[in-house]
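Hi R.,

Here's the chain you asked about this morning:
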Amino acid sequence: MKLLLKGGRLVDPVSGRDEVVDIQIVDGTIERIASGITVSAGVKEIDLRGKIVAPGFIDMHVHLREPGYEHKETIETGCASAAAGGFTAVCCMPNTNPAIDDESVARYVHEKGKGVCDGIVDVYPIAAATKGRKGEELSPMAELVQAGAVGFSDDGAPISSPEIMRRALEYSSMYGVPVIQHAEESSMTRDGCMNEGAMATRLGLSGIPPIAEELMIARDVILLRYTPEARYHVAHISTKNALAHVRKAKSEGLNVTCEVTPHHFTITEDVVSGFDTNTKMNPPLRTKDDVAAMKDGLRDGTIDVIATDHAPHTIDEKEVEYTTAPFGIVGLETAVGLCLTELVEKKVLTIVQLIQKLSTNPRRLLSLPEIVFKEGEAANITLLDPVAEWTVKTAAFRSKSKNSPFDGFRLKGRAIGIINNGKALFF
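And here is the predicted structure, written out as tokens:
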């Protein structure tokens, strides 16, 4: 593979570079970065005038469903969806069957990811914090890290026991990886299917109270003060008061980070009024004030990462009554477009800040190697067209599932290619 990326705007938060340059890549390695490079024989020139060259994006919260739920998604189809969305890496959550709670399952996921989609998308497992994700006994953390796990979580369920969470924080700190909490006091959320409030009452649906998220984070912050060497990460944060807990913990110097999904800074509980089960997710869509708070948290740096919580479900699983439908939506193929439209276009974030939250920050908090734009380094790149206008068509998704509330949305900006592991894909 010999490529000349011509005239793109290189935006690299690690080095601070933000300039229009040419980049020559040979066999997956950056050979030269300069202005005015002349294309030579056997080199494919890619015209990137007006486009952005960024370090490869990573989605640290994805459900690939394999093993056990291959009717929803597989590692192969999930990686194809990630590539189409502009991601060169994903971290897959452990609520599979069996759960990613021992070395053999973690190694299976990690190794299989290398063999699909020409290996262009790196797959990193997030291992279960407890055996079977039951919250009763810690998983074998040392073996899981050795098998490729980059974090621990019982995602889909909280780590409810304070003692188990304390031990998870203590043991995970020995390996420099975070505990990722699905922040929910589940005794308050049973049978809930949307945000608790006036809208839920009007629709006759059971509510999930915001305080359930806030209580769990508040408890965990207290535990973190007791184990300050640990690293604690809040998955899919969704309420303004939950964000206030994280902001205060950060001000104390605690090792707290958090992520937000595109749907939680884009749409509100109002869309549930049509009873489209593609608006059902956990945590649920919240209020306008919460959406505004998520944007404020992104702007001031309280929110470190944007992640999709890509959660595939089949059509027949979603085409049921709202109360019985599973939680979750797919998000890999709409994330970049929603971010550019809702955050960059509306001046919530600069393009540099967005790239930090989609690439630099998640790699840093997962202790993954930084992507370096320098001659002799491996090319790991996401290419963006910040002004391309397009319409979301879920039927064309590369994901095996199509459950998205954004079908028909008109967006501005999208990924147009990725380069990783000596492979290139342009679209």
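One quick note: Residues 210-226 form the longest helix (17 residues).

Cheers,
M.
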